[in-house]
């Protein structure tokens, strides 16, 4: 907010409009913020093809691991990483004809975990047709 106010104060004529977009337009009390002028649900945005259809795949019948550290994150999440890469390859092959590339998004609890997972994907990549760029 401070950055936008600074921009407003330093450009000729200032900002004419300031729009906020949020997936969580509610206060901690579960009421809408008073400045909401439009509520556009995700389901409607998907139907209108404004956003992509989220696909959550959980093909590994296994409990979430406990006591994850940077050293064992790949081992603990290895089955999930392999399942995600396998699913990505299926989509890559399916969309190749229409010249679209699927995106694989993996969320990690910490940056250090993300770095370890990225290194594992680079190592396993060729098996799934992923090349390092």
Output the helix-strand order: HHHH
Count of beta strands: 0
The profile of the biggest β sheet is: none
Backbone structural class: mainly alpha
Uncertain regions spanning at least 5 consecutive residues? none
Cα-based radius of gyration, to the nearest Å: 21 Å
Domains (count): 2
What is the overall pLDDT average? 80
User: How many distinct helices?
Assistant: 4
Cα shape: extended
Helix percentage = 40-55%
| β-strand amount | under 5%
Which helices and strands, and how do they pair?
Layout (H helix, E strand, L loop, with lengths): L1 H9 L31 H6 L25 H23 L15 H18 L5
Top keywords for this entry?
133 residues, mainly alpha, 42% helix, 0% strand, extended
Summarize the structure.
The chain is mainly α and 133 residues long. Helix content is 42%, strand content 0%.
């Amino acid at each position: 907010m401070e950055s936008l106010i600074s921009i407003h104060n330093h450009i000729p004529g200032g900002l004419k409009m300031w729009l906020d977009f949020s997936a969580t337009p509610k206060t901690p009390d579960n009421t809408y913020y008073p400045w909401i002028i439009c509520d556009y649900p995700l389901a409607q945005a998907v139907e209108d093809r404004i956003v992509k259809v989220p696909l959550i795949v959980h093909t590994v019948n296994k409990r979430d691991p406990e006591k994850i550290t940077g050293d064992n994150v790949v081992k603990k999440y290895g089955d999930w990483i392999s399942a995600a890469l396998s699913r990505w390859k299926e989509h890559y092959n399916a969309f190749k004809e229409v010249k679209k590339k699927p995106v694989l998004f993996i969320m990690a609890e910490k940056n250090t975990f993300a770095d370890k997972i990225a290194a594992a994907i680079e190592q396993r990549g060729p098996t799934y047709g992923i090349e390092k760029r």
